[in-house]
Amino acid sequence: MAKIQVFGHKSPDTDTIASAMAAADLLAQQGLDTEAVAQGKPNQETQYALDHFGLQTLPIIDKATTEEVVLVDHNEAAQSVDNLAEVTVYGIYDHHKFNFQNATPLYITAKPWGSVSTILYYEYLKAGLTIPAKIAGMLVSGLISDTLLLKSPTTTDVDRAALPELAKMAGIDDVDAYGLAMLKAGTDLSSKSDED
Amino acid sequence: MAKIQVFGHKSPDTDTIASAMAAADLLAQQGLDTEAVAQGKPNQETQYALDHFGLQTLPIIDKATTEEVVLVDHNEAAQSVDNLAEVTVYGIYDHHKFNFQNATPLYITAKPWGSVSTILYYEYLKAGLTIPAKIAGMLVSGLISDTLLLKSPTTTDVDRAALPELAKMAGIDDVDAYGLAMLKAGTDLSSKSDED
Ligand SMILES: [Mn+2]
Ligand SMILES: [Mn+2]
Ligand SMILES: [Mn+2]
Ligand SMILES: [Mn+2]
Q: Which domain holds residue A34?
């Protein structure tokens, strides 16, 4: 089976990194050969989350090097790898407006929810699969980042329900304290991307 | 709560009619106020299925008359209602290549499977909801129509697994006999659309 690269948008934010990791793991648990990668270095907020859960940064790509790819947290070509038109999009997990065209039927799971991290939490659940604790930690982080600790107007009831469940799986006792520390880490060096 | 019209592509085929009915029912069971409609009269094959299960034809529209809509079995504006750009797409269920853009986050469930009828069968299942027998009958019909009784190259293992389950729910004893009779009804007057 050929490998499938899984990646989020350019100028990666925490939701993009978390959902690339989670989608690659979810699809691997379902039998695909996946590799989570990123279109750039983690920002300070994401680096805080990676350090907290003892995770390495993702390999950085500027072009996809597999024939099939999975897009997370974006669907527009402008936010994707430069050679998107030359590869086949196997699937998309996203929560943005759409501007996507391709030549072949594909998997798309899109929901108007606060984060792709939230969407992936429910995808694991519906598939009856276990979320590894470190990946749950990254999904907590992606959810908190995109919804500003459930305070953003994009926050939905689904996000509010997912956060405590994910925090439990990640072994986070005080999710507010963790979230504030993570968001603060992202503002320290004003290196936070202005994309969600 | 405002009503949401649910419809498939122009020149409706059996999968389009079946999935409009099923998506409208599934979303209604989840609390939305939906109305299944169609962009044209049923073809002879679809009419055979409707008659077999004692169902009325869907109301025919040429423009959406609700502010929000759900698209089934298509996603391209050219195959949709003329005023698509003036309404909000709440969600899409589809199995075709994509060419879609919009201005707001939305629900999309797309899979590269043989029919949208198959996709909706699994959506009911994952949601833990019951498929009414007549709607199961239409989903059997949509699946058989798009896959030519599981013989088309677009047929997947998922379609093969769904067909006997749906037939059971629909109370169809001999699904091959039903399928052949339905497909034959569609060829009698060469009125079958050449879209899948
Ligand atoms: Mn996001
Ligand atoms: Mn993002
Ligand atoms: Mn179809
Ligand atoms: Mn069709």
A: 4-187
Global ipTM: 0.94
Q: Which of A109, A107, A69 lies closest to A86, judged by CA? A: A69
State the CATH number of the domain containing residue B76. 3.90.1640.10
Pair of tokens at residue A9 = 């948008």
B146 in a structural domain: yes
| CB under 5 Å of ion ligand 1: residues | A 15, 73, 146
d(CA A83, CA A50): 28
CA of A17 to the centre of ligand 1 (A): 10
Within-domain flag for B191: no
Q: What tens digit of pLDDT does each residue of A139-184 get?
A: 999 999 999 999 999 999 999 999 999 999 999 999 999 999 999 9
Nearest CA in chain A to B126: A126
What 3-state class would DSSP assign to B101? Answer: strand
Whether A97 sits inside 8 A of B105 (CB atoms) is yes
